Amino acid sequence: MSFLRTLLILGRVSNLPTVWTNVAVGWFLCGGGWTAELGWIVAGISLLYVGGMTMNDAFDAKWDQENAPERPIPAGQISHRATWAVYLAETVAGIAILSRLTSVNELLIGGLILSITLYNILHKHWKGSVILMGLCRAFVYIAAGSAVATQTSSLEVATILFVVAGAVVLYIAGITLAARNEHLDSPVGNSFLNRILLMLPVLFPLLGFRTVPTNPLYIGVTAVGVIGAWAWIVLSRKALAEKIPRGIAFLIAGIAFYDAAILAFADWRAAFAALACFALTLGLQRVVPAT
Q1: What is the pLDDT of residues 2-37, one digit of tens each?
Q2: CA 228 → CA 176, 182, 202, 279, distances in Å?
Q3: Number of H-type helices and E-type strands within the chain
Q4: Interior angle at CA 132, CA 71 and CA 276, nearest 5
Q5: Cα torsion for 167, 221, 16, 129, to the nearest 10°?
Q6: DSSP state of 177
Q7: Which residues 6+ apart lie within 8 Å of 111 measured at CB?
Q8: What pTM was computed for the model?
Q9: What are the residue ranges spanned by the domains of the chain?
């Protein structure tokens, strides 16, 4: 059980529900339905996510030794070599599921893996790597959408999906910028740039609200998503100013709120599921640290 918990911490599995909602947005916004393939995409992307997070600890082992000795490798809970082996197993399994059991475009799978790898290599050496972290999430949205596109006519992904993914790239960049200060003696997590980037997810559902069908259920779900996402980001920014790790965890969970607002335009059941994933993320973060 101790080793299992170590794997959960390495993979930051408490954040996985937000990855599931990313997949759901890409899938349903491109016209996908409640089919088995959606489950396989969720499974494959989840493995790539935990693999990427595990790789992050492997790359940061030396830095963690000095700055975050509580992490699994410096704490002696797992060896450096074993961490690389776990990363490889998780990533290979994820690739196998996506390539054999789904219609996700293989170039997009490669793009996701490349973004994950480049971020882990460069994030301690290049400030611009925060965009690479955002791209990792963007590839999740677009990859899920590509699976639907291949089942129709061609690899055409809904244009609006790129808008959604673009907003998330900048939002994740804002979170990552704040996370850079996590281990500083005098952290500053609420810079002007952070405040701008972290409010972007509210704009899309707010601007798109007028396109919601007149069905009261759709309007209600969308309103909850817009108002809820805005309120949660405000609360998260306050938490960020008080305690950076807590604020970052809240902001990561907020991704599911953003996705819920988007999903209201496509499938109300998926929107409610995304809100449940938001609550699940907060619950899991009490057991497994988000960062």
Answers
A1: 899 999 999 999 999 999 999 999 999 888 999 999
A2: 22, 26, 9, 12
A3: 13, 0
A4: 70
A5: 10
A6: H
A7: 139
A8: 0.86
A9: 2-285
